[in-house]
UniProtKB/TrEMBL annotation:
Catalytic residues (UniProt): 26, 116
Source organism of this protein record: Forsythia ovata
Name of protein: Phosphoglycerate mutase-like protein AT74
Residues the entry annotates as binding substrate: 25-32, 87, 127
Domain of life: Eukaryota
Taxonomic lineage: Eukaryota, Viridiplantae, Streptophyta, Embryophyta, Tracheophyta
Pfam family, one: His_Phos_1
Length: 335
């Protein structure tokens, strides 16, 4: 994802950019508690368990501490996005609770593209177990669930334009194909979100107040959101662990206008989530930009190794831009 401050056209709107984008997985559901529920309750109707309700209430307090900087700041607003599943909506209700006054909430949007990976309709447990075993052998990203979606399908609807009719295009005339394309071709959620951020459609009318986006969704959807945002590879995706119930990831604006996980989270957390050293170094650079900035922070000594390379030196980066930017420029040139 390019820097929000990377072009002159953004200078008038950068002040409206959210300070944080917080991705939250729903609380424990009845399906997490007992998978037999999946055999007779539609996936999107599955509710939170009692434990999940408590988790959602607790995480609401934690998130408020993050955005209010442990209660020291009142200069903030929140905008919520939520998957249409019952368990995510219940989680959001508990997160808001008594913790977020009405004057602090500038909007709440139900977003269908944030839904869970589709595993088919009512799910036979033995078939589900077999599917998961096969998926692990085949590869989690590309394996498509029979009558459902692959992780790649979810990635497409989370990120960029995609056609949600793989199984409809056989034996169609050109006119029929064109008609279906016009119906099913839609921009992905992240594409829409970025456009709304750049054009100030997030209702952040007062730039002096810090805007925070809180997105309540599902574990895999959150991983794929991060994969697209940070341009992670399929191999890197396969090394990631799924967020636990009501676990959250905070993307926060860094010193050079890039969003980074390293602004809020400790490096030990990033490693525990499955980020490689290369991915962590990228997060550090997105957060702090140069070795000069990095010296004022407390990080492991290994971080210095990243900047020993000539192409990561302050002088080289100031002249040529970050590796991420150069990579994006190369990709755009080839496109």
């Amino acid at each position: 994802m390019h820097s929000v401050f990377g072009s002159d056209s953004m200078k008038n709107t950068e002040k409206y950019m959210p300070k944080r984008i917080i991705l939250v997985r729903h609380g424990e559901s009845e399906g997490n508690e007992n998978e037999e529920v999946l055999e007779y309750v539609p996936n999107y109707k599955i509710k939170l368990s009692n434990k999940g309700i408590q988790q959602a209430q607790n995480v609401g307090s934690k998130i408020k501490k993050v955005i209010s900087e442990n209660g020291e700041s009142e200069n903030w607003k929140v905008l919520f996005y939520v998957s249409p599943s019952e368990r995510t909506k219940q989680t959001l209700e508990r997160i808001i609770g008594e913790k977020f006054p009405e004057d602090k909430v500038i909007g709440l949007k139900e977003e269908c593209r944030l839904r869970e990976q589709h595993f088919g309709n009512f799910q036979d447990l033995e078939k589900r177990k077999k599917i998961k075993r096969t998926r692990n052998r085949y590869g989690k990203f590309f394996y498509r669930v029979p009558d459902g979606e692959s992780s790649a399908d979810v990635y497409d609807r989370v990120s960029s334009k995609f056609l949600a009719f793989h199984f409809l295009i056989k034996n169609l005339t050109y006119a029929q194909f064109a008609h279906i394309t016009s119906i099913f071709s839609r921009p992905g959620f992240l594409e829409t979100l970025w456009r709304e951020m750049e054009t100030n459609r997030l209702n952040n009318k007062n730039p002096s107040e810090e805007l925070n986006l809180i997105i309540v969704s599902h574990g895999l959807t959150i991983l794929l959101f991060l994969m697209k945002w940070f341009n992670w590879t399929v191999e890197q995706f396969h090394g990631l662990s799924n967020p636990s119930n009501c676990e959250y990831r905070v993307l926060q604006l860094g010193c050079n206008g890039e969003y980074s996980l390293a602004m809020h989270h400790k490096l030990e957390e990033l490693r525990a989530w499955g980020l490689s050293e290369e991915m962590i170094h990228d997060q550090i650079f997105r957060a702090y930009g140069t070795k000069k900035n990095l010296k004022s922070t407390i990080f492991l000594p290994k971080s210095d190794v990243f900047f020993d390379d000539k192409e990561n030196s302050d002088e080289f980066l100031e002249e040529n831009g970050s590796k991420t930017k150069r990579k994006l420029a190369y990709i755009n040139q080839k496109a």
